[in-house]
Amino acid sequence: MKFTTFALFAYHAACVFSMPTSAENECGALGVMDWSTVELPDYVDRTQLRKCKEHPERIVSPNKRETNILEERACSPPGEHGKRWGCSKKGYCWINCGSLLRGEWCWEAMNHGTGEWSKCKEDDDCYRNMEKGARCSVGDCKACGCGC
User: Fold this and answer.
1) Does 124 have pLDDT greater than 80?
2) Which SS3 state, helix, strand or coil, does residue 92 take?
3) What separation in angstroms does the CA of 93 have from each of 10, 63, 106, 123, 145?
4) Exposure string (b/e) for 122-139, b if CB count within 10 Å is 16 or more?
5) pLDDT the model gives residue 81
6) Each residue of 51-71: b (16+ CB within 10 Å) or e?
7) E strand intervals along the chain
8) For labelling alongside 41, which of 7, 48, 100, 110 has CA 20 to 30 A away?
9) What is the pLDDT of residue 144?
10) pLDDT the model gives residue 11
11) Rounded CA gap, 95 and 32, in Å?
12) Number of helices (H) and strands (E), helices first, in the chain?
């Protein structure tokens, strides 16, 4: 009887901890992405859309870091100037999407820009991710699209 009670308790605990968390809880300050306002091409896998709206790594200017939680993007990629793509110090891919001289860049996301943020350990991982369908992030987030 004690074993059955313990087994039922363990099963119940496993069920509770395996329940999916809400997108609001999972994303927190990054916000939840609303894909209903974005026109998606047919080739985008709608089962692989990104949940969180903003990029987890945001570039800020030092004078705005303490007062502004919605941080502005620097006009320079988070890697070596003049490179076409790269891996940030925190392990996210970026690609140069416009003029190298103007410093235009974007964060790379899988699933043609709509999926999870593209991750890396070295610069060449970002090129390999592009071969797997990673592109400039799309959507209505501050980190989405090309620019600076």
Assistant:
1) yes
2) strand
3) 41, 25, 9, 8, 14
4) ebebbbebbeebbbbbbb
5) 61
6) ebbbbebbbeeeeeeeeeeeb
7) 85-87, 93-96, 105-109, 135-136
8) 100
9) 77
10) 54
11) 24
12) 4, 4
Question: What are the two backbone dihedrals, phi and then psi, of residue 128, each rounded to the nearest 5 degrees?
Answer: -65, -35
The first and second tokens of residue 130, run together, are 């592009």
Largest CA distance in the chain: 74
At 52-99, the pLDDT tens digits run: 988 888 644 333 444 444 445 556 666 666 678 889 989 999 988 877
Q: Phi/psi of residue 104, each to 5°?
A: -75, 130
Q: Do 117 and 29 contact (CB within 8 A), yes or no?
A: no
Find tokens 């790269």 and name the residue.
86
